């Protein structure tokens, strides 16, 4: 029997290990930042307002369909185009828990971690995950499990620094937290 889809991501912590589970939404190669968040919305500063328009140039119905915890699966060069941070911010604010792609544009890759969006590169996962599949990701162990097909894909686990950066909500939040910790500790 198929496992029921849950609109909200299941996040389990076992022995300091995090597991993310959600429905896959699949996109092709060379999805650019204008398709992720169209330029006509770049004057918006509220991440939730940006999320109302995420991926709408690639799939006009996507903002209404995506649910908290869902996972984007994309082809090669995801996030190419401009260097705007609006793209990963809009994806994260839409509730997407993770992006898995064949490859990422380098600036999007960096901006994702800077804004606290979890991403993984895995060409085999892109090949083995279909839209609508239920996918489980364990970032600590570097495992992507397609629950629908029972396929397992291995990726490089997150290095401790990147994990800490994501747990803190991105680079700016990480720096603020480190600064606060330094100010609180006696000299």
Q: Topology of this structure?
A:
Elements: E1 10-14, E2 17-26, H1 33-36, H2 47-51, H3 62-65, E3 71-74, H4 86-93, E4 98-101, H5 106-115, E5 119-121, H6 123-128, E6 134-138, E7 143-146, E8 151-154, H7 160-167, H8 171-184
Parallel strand pairs: 2-3, 3-4, 4-5
Antiparallel strand pairs: 1-2, 2-6, 6-7, 7-8
Helix pairs in contact: 4-5
CATH topology title: Aconitase, domain 4
Mean pLDDT: 89
Number of helices: 8
- Strand portion, in percent? 15-25%
Q: Mind summarizing the main beta sheet?
A: 8 strands, mixed
Order of helix and strand elements from N to C terminus: EEHHHEHEHEHEEEHH
Percent in helix = 25-40%
Report the CATH architecture.
Alpha-Beta Barrel
The CATH superfamily is: Aconitase, domain 4
Number of domains: 1
Highest CATH level, the class: Alpha Beta
Low-confidence sequence ranges: 1-15
- Rounded to an integer in angstroms, the radius of gyration calculated over CA atoms is 16 Å
How far is it from the N-terminal to the C-terminal residue, by CA?
Answer: 60 Å
What's the shape? Answer: globular
